[in-house]
UniProtKB/TrEMBL annotation:
Membrane topology annotation: Multi-pass membrane protein
Transmembrane region(s): 20-40, 60-84, 111-136, 151-170, 177-199, 251-269
One cellular component term from this protein's GO annotations in UniProt: plasma membrane
Protein's name according to its UniProt entry: Excinuclease ABC subunit B
Protein source organism: Neotamlana nanhaiensis
Coiled-coil regions listed: none
Pfam families: ABC2_membrane_3 (PF12698)
Cellular localisation: Membrane
Annotated ABC-2 type transporter transmembrane domain residues: 64-264
InterPro entries: ABC2_TM (IPR013525)
Length: 274
Protein backbone atom coordinates (compact mmCIF):
# COMPACT_ATOMS: atom_id res chain seq x y z
CA UNK A 1 0.00 0.00 0.00
CA UNK A 2 2.70 2.49 1.00
CA UNK A 3 4.71 1.71 -2.13
CA UNK A 4 1.73 2.49 -4.36
CA UNK A 5 0.85 5.61 -2.38
CA UNK A 6 4.44 6.86 -2.53
CA UNK A 7 4.50 6.27 -6.30
CA UNK A 8 1.36 8.34 -6.81
CA UNK A 9 2.46 11.14 -4.49
CA UNK A 10 5.70 11.48 -6.43
CA UNK A 11 3.75 11.94 -9.66
CA UNK A 12 1.50 14.58 -8.12
CA UNK A 13 4.28 16.55 -6.45
CA UNK A 14 6.28 16.65 -9.68
CA UNK A 15 3.34 18.32 -11.40
CA UNK A 16 3.20 22.07 -10.69
CA UNK A 17 -0.55 22.39 -11.33
CA UNK A 18 -1.34 19.45 -9.04
CA UNK A 19 0.82 20.91 -6.28
CA UNK A 20 -1.03 24.23 -6.47
CA UNK A 21 -4.46 22.57 -6.43
CA UNK A 22 -3.51 20.33 -3.50
CA UNK A 23 -2.21 23.36 -1.61
CA UNK A 24 -5.43 25.27 -2.30
CA UNK A 25 -7.50 22.22 -1.24
CA UNK A 26 -5.82 22.19 2.17
CA UNK A 27 -5.77 25.96 2.65
CA UNK A 28 -9.45 26.66 1.87
CA UNK A 29 -10.84 24.86 4.95
CA UNK A 30 -8.97 27.37 7.09
CA UNK A 31 -11.44 29.98 5.86
CA UNK A 32 -13.81 28.46 8.42
CA UNK A 33 -11.67 30.32 10.97
CA UNK A 34 -12.43 33.59 9.17
CA UNK A 35 -16.11 32.71 9.38
CA UNK A 36 -15.80 32.41 13.16
CA UNK A 37 -14.37 35.92 13.42
CA UNK A 38 -16.80 37.48 10.94
CA UNK A 39 -18.43 40.68 12.15
CA UNK A 40 -21.51 42.03 10.36
CA UNK A 41 -22.42 45.68 10.75
CA UNK A 42 -26.23 45.90 10.75
CA UNK A 43 -27.08 49.29 9.22
CA UNK A 44 -24.72 51.01 11.64
CA UNK A 45 -26.94 50.24 14.65
CA UNK A 46 -25.00 47.30 16.03
CA UNK A 47 -22.35 44.74 15.08
CA UNK A 48 -23.26 41.08 14.80
CA UNK A 49 -20.38 38.69 15.58
CA UNK A 50 -21.03 35.06 14.64
CA UNK A 51 -18.60 33.76 17.23
CA UNK A 52 -20.66 35.34 20.00
CA UNK A 53 -23.99 33.86 18.86
CA UNK A 54 -23.25 30.36 20.11
CA UNK A 55 -23.06 28.77 16.66
CA UNK A 56 -19.53 27.57 17.45
CA UNK A 57 -20.51 25.80 20.64
CA UNK A 58 -19.82 22.11 21.04
CA UNK A 59 -21.22 19.85 19.67
CA UNK A 60 -22.87 21.87 16.85
CA UNK A 61 -19.48 23.08 15.60
CA UNK A 62 -18.66 19.60 14.24
CA UNK A 63 -21.74 19.84 12.05
CA UNK A 64 -21.08 23.42 10.95
CA UNK A 65 -17.40 23.10 10.00
CA UNK A 66 -17.69 19.75 8.20
CA UNK A 67 -20.61 21.07 6.14
CA UNK A 68 -18.74 24.20 5.05
CA UNK A 69 -15.45 22.37 4.47
CA UNK A 70 -17.16 19.81 2.23
CA UNK A 71 -18.09 22.62 -0.17
CA UNK A 72 -14.39 22.97 -1.09
CA UNK A 73 -14.03 19.36 -2.31
CA UNK A 74 -14.20 20.36 -5.99
CA UNK A 75 -10.63 21.65 -5.95
CA UNK A 76 -9.21 18.23 -5.11
CA UNK A 77 -11.74 16.69 -7.54
CA UNK A 78 -9.79 18.49 -10.27
CA UNK A 79 -6.62 16.83 -8.98
CA UNK A 80 -8.28 13.38 -9.09
CA UNK A 81 -9.50 13.66 -12.68
CA UNK A 82 -6.16 15.22 -13.67
CA UNK A 83 -4.36 12.17 -12.22
CA UNK A 84 -6.13 10.04 -14.82
CA UNK A 85 -6.00 12.55 -17.68
CA UNK A 86 -2.27 13.04 -17.27
CA UNK A 87 -1.67 9.28 -17.24
CA UNK A 88 -3.22 8.99 -20.71
CA UNK A 89 -1.88 12.24 -22.20
CA UNK A 90 1.68 11.67 -20.91
CA UNK A 91 1.63 7.91 -21.71
CA UNK A 92 2.74 7.17 -18.13
CA UNK A 93 -0.05 4.62 -17.67
CA UNK A 94 1.30 2.40 -20.42
CA UNK A 95 4.86 2.86 -19.14
CA UNK A 96 3.83 1.91 -15.59
CA UNK A 97 2.25 -1.29 -16.85
CA UNK A 98 5.34 -2.10 -18.92
CA UNK A 99 7.49 -1.53 -15.82
CA UNK A 100 5.55 -4.22 -13.96
CA UNK A 101 2.68 -2.36 -12.27
CA UNK A 102 -0.52 -4.39 -12.61
CA UNK A 103 -3.81 -2.74 -13.59
CA UNK A 104 -5.20 -3.56 -10.17
CA UNK A 105 -2.23 -1.87 -8.48
CA UNK A 106 -2.66 1.15 -10.75
CA UNK A 107 -6.27 1.68 -9.61
CA UNK A 108 -5.35 0.96 -6.00
CA UNK A 109 -2.59 3.59 -6.14
CA UNK A 110 -5.23 6.17 -7.14
CA UNK A 111 -7.64 4.99 -4.46
CA UNK A 112 -4.99 5.01 -1.73
CA UNK A 113 -4.16 8.60 -2.71
CA UNK A 114 -7.83 9.54 -2.44
CA UNK A 115 -8.06 7.96 1.03
CA UNK A 116 -4.81 9.63 2.12
CA UNK A 117 -5.84 13.16 1.12
CA UNK A 118 -9.36 12.65 2.52
CA UNK A 119 -7.81 11.58 5.83
CA UNK A 120 -5.45 14.57 5.93
CA UNK A 121 -8.35 16.91 5.18
CA UNK A 122 -10.45 15.31 7.94
CA UNK A 123 -7.65 15.69 10.50
CA UNK A 124 -7.24 19.36 9.52
CA UNK A 125 -10.96 20.04 9.94
CA UNK A 126 -10.94 18.23 13.29
CA UNK A 127 -8.09 20.41 14.57
CA UNK A 128 -9.64 23.63 13.21
CA UNK A 129 -13.03 22.79 14.75
CA UNK A 130 -11.47 21.88 18.08
CA UNK A 131 -9.51 25.15 18.24
CA UNK A 132 -12.51 27.31 17.31
CA UNK A 133 -14.76 25.39 19.69
CA UNK A 134 -12.38 25.66 22.63
CA UNK A 135 -12.13 29.41 22.03
CA UNK A 136 -15.84 30.20 21.55
CA UNK A 137 -17.81 27.37 23.11
CA UNK A 138 -19.64 27.85 26.38
CA UNK A 139 -19.20 24.14 27.09
CA UNK A 140 -15.79 22.61 27.77
CA UNK A 141 -16.78 19.26 29.31
CA UNK A 142 -15.05 16.38 27.54
CA UNK A 143 -18.31 14.44 27.14
CA UNK A 144 -19.89 17.39 25.30
CA UNK A 145 -16.80 18.13 23.20
CA UNK A 146 -16.69 14.60 21.75
CA UNK A 147 -20.44 14.47 21.10
CA UNK A 148 -21.33 14.21 17.40
CA UNK A 149 -17.73 13.80 16.25
CA UNK A 150 -19.29 11.23 13.91
CA UNK A 151 -19.70 14.23 11.58
CA UNK A 152 -15.94 13.90 11.03
CA UNK A 153 -16.37 10.26 9.97
CA UNK A 154 -19.22 11.30 7.68
CA UNK A 155 -17.00 14.02 6.21
CA UNK A 156 -14.22 11.49 5.53
CA UNK A 157 -16.60 9.00 3.88
CA UNK A 158 -18.18 11.81 1.86
CA UNK A 159 -14.80 12.88 0.45
CA UNK A 160 -13.70 9.31 -0.35
CA UNK A 161 -17.03 8.62 -2.07
CA UNK A 162 -17.02 11.82 -4.12
CA UNK A 163 -13.40 11.46 -5.22
CA UNK A 164 -14.01 7.79 -6.13
CA UNK A 165 -16.83 9.00 -8.39
CA UNK A 166 -14.37 11.47 -9.96
CA UNK A 167 -11.90 8.61 -10.42
CA UNK A 168 -14.53 6.59 -12.28
CA UNK A 169 -15.47 9.50 -14.56
CA UNK A 170 -11.78 10.17 -15.18
CA UNK A 171 -11.28 6.54 -16.25
CA UNK A 172 -14.45 6.65 -18.34
CA UNK A 173 -13.66 9.70 -20.48
CA UNK A 174 -9.85 10.04 -20.01
CA UNK A 175 -10.03 13.85 -20.04
CA UNK A 176 -10.27 16.11 -17.01
CA UNK A 177 -12.71 18.68 -18.40
CA UNK A 178 -15.14 16.05 -19.69
CA UNK A 179 -14.94 14.12 -16.41
CA UNK A 180 -15.95 17.23 -14.44
CA UNK A 181 -18.74 17.89 -16.93
CA UNK A 182 -20.07 14.39 -16.23
CA UNK A 183 -20.49 15.36 -12.58
CA UNK A 184 -22.83 18.15 -13.63
CA UNK A 185 -24.67 15.82 -16.02
CA UNK A 186 -25.12 13.25 -13.22
CA UNK A 187 -26.50 15.97 -10.94
CA UNK A 188 -29.06 17.01 -13.59
CA UNK A 189 -29.91 13.36 -14.31
CA UNK A 190 -30.60 12.63 -10.64
CA UNK A 191 -33.08 15.51 -10.48
CA UNK A 192 -34.76 14.47 -13.74
CA UNK A 193 -35.28 10.94 -12.39
CA UNK A 194 -36.53 12.42 -9.10
CA UNK A 195 -39.04 14.54 -11.04
CA UNK A 196 -40.25 11.54 -13.05
CA UNK A 197 -40.74 9.43 -9.92
CA UNK A 198 -42.60 12.32 -8.23
CA UNK A 199 -44.85 12.61 -11.28
CA UNK A 200 -45.61 8.87 -11.25
CA UNK A 201 -46.06 8.48 -7.48
CA UNK A 202 -45.66 11.04 -4.69
CA UNK A 203 -42.97 13.40 -3.39
CA UNK A 204 -42.26 11.45 -0.18
CA UNK A 205 -41.63 8.18 -2.04
CA UNK A 206 -39.51 9.96 -4.67
CA UNK A 207 -37.41 11.54 -1.92
CA UNK A 208 -36.72 8.13 -0.39
CA UNK A 209 -35.54 6.80 -3.77
CA UNK A 210 -33.48 9.94 -4.42
CA UNK A 211 -31.53 9.39 -1.20
CA UNK A 212 -30.00 6.30 -2.82
CA UNK A 213 -28.62 8.29 -5.78
CA UNK A 214 -24.82 8.78 -5.51
CA UNK A 215 -24.59 12.59 -5.32
CA UNK A 216 -27.68 12.92 -3.15
CA UNK A 217 -26.49 10.15 -0.83
CA UNK A 218 -23.16 11.96 -0.36
CA UNK A 219 -24.94 15.24 0.34
CA UNK A 220 -27.28 13.61 2.86
CA UNK A 221 -24.35 12.46 4.99
CA UNK A 222 -24.02 16.02 6.29
CA UNK A 223 -27.25 18.00 6.00
CA UNK A 224 -27.26 21.80 6.04
CA UNK A 225 -26.80 23.16 9.61
CA UNK A 226 -28.68 26.47 9.20
CA UNK A 227 -32.05 25.06 10.21
CA UNK A 228 -30.43 23.43 13.24
CA UNK A 229 -28.96 26.78 14.30
CA UNK A 230 -32.41 28.35 13.94
CA UNK A 231 -33.87 25.52 16.06
CA UNK A 232 -31.42 26.30 18.86
CA UNK A 233 -32.44 29.97 18.82
CA UNK A 234 -36.19 29.37 18.48
CA UNK A 235 -36.90 26.03 20.22
CA UNK A 236 -40.64 26.78 20.39
CA UNK A 237 -40.98 26.68 16.57
CA UNK A 238 -41.78 23.02 15.88
CA UNK A 239 -41.83 23.60 12.11
CA UNK A 240 -38.06 24.03 12.19
CA UNK A 241 -37.44 20.50 13.48
CA UNK A 242 -35.66 18.19 11.02
CA UNK A 243 -33.38 15.15 11.10
CA UNK A 244 -29.80 16.44 10.87
CA UNK A 245 -28.10 13.43 12.47
CA UNK A 246 -25.50 11.22 10.76
CA UNK A 247 -27.00 7.77 10.19
CA UNK A 248 -25.14 4.50 9.75
CA UNK A 249 -27.29 3.42 6.79
CA UNK A 250 -26.37 6.65 4.97
CA UNK A 251 -22.68 5.82 5.42
CA UNK A 252 -23.28 2.29 4.12
CA UNK A 253 -24.98 3.65 0.98
CA UNK A 254 -22.03 5.94 0.20
CA UNK A 255 -19.49 3.20 0.97
CA UNK A 256 -21.42 0.93 -1.40
CA UNK A 257 -21.21 3.52 -4.18
CA UNK A 258 -17.50 4.01 -3.40
CA UNK A 259 -16.77 0.28 -3.79
CA UNK A 260 -18.78 0.21 -7.03
CA UNK A 261 -16.95 3.21 -8.53
CA UNK A 262 -13.52 1.74 -7.71
CA UNK A 263 -14.56 -1.65 -9.11
CA UNK A 264 -15.94 -0.10 -12.32
CA UNK A 265 -12.75 1.94 -12.73
CA UNK A 266 -10.76 -1.28 -12.52
CA UNK A 267 -13.07 -3.05 -15.00
CA UNK A 268 -12.74 -0.19 -17.46
CA UNK A 269 -8.97 -0.30 -17.27
CA UNK A 270 -8.87 -4.10 -17.48
CA UNK A 271 -11.03 -4.23 -20.62
CA UNK A 272 -9.36 -1.30 -22.34
CA UNK A 273 -6.74 -1.87 -25.04
CA UNK A 274 -3.81 0.37 -24.10
Amino acid sequence: MFRLLNLELQKLLLNRTSKILIFVSFILPFFVILLSSLKINVFGFFTLELGELGVFNFPIIWHLTTFFASQFKFFFAIVVVSMIGNEYSNKTLKQNLIDGLSKKEFILSKFYTIVFFSLVSTVLIALISLCIGLYYSSYNEFSIIVQQTNFLLAYFIKLVGFFSLCLFFGMLVKRSAFALAFLFILYILEWIIFGLITWQSDHHFAEKIQNFFPLKAMYKLIDQPFQRIAMSKFPEKSELVYDYAVHGYEMVIVLGWTALFVFLSYRLLKQRDL
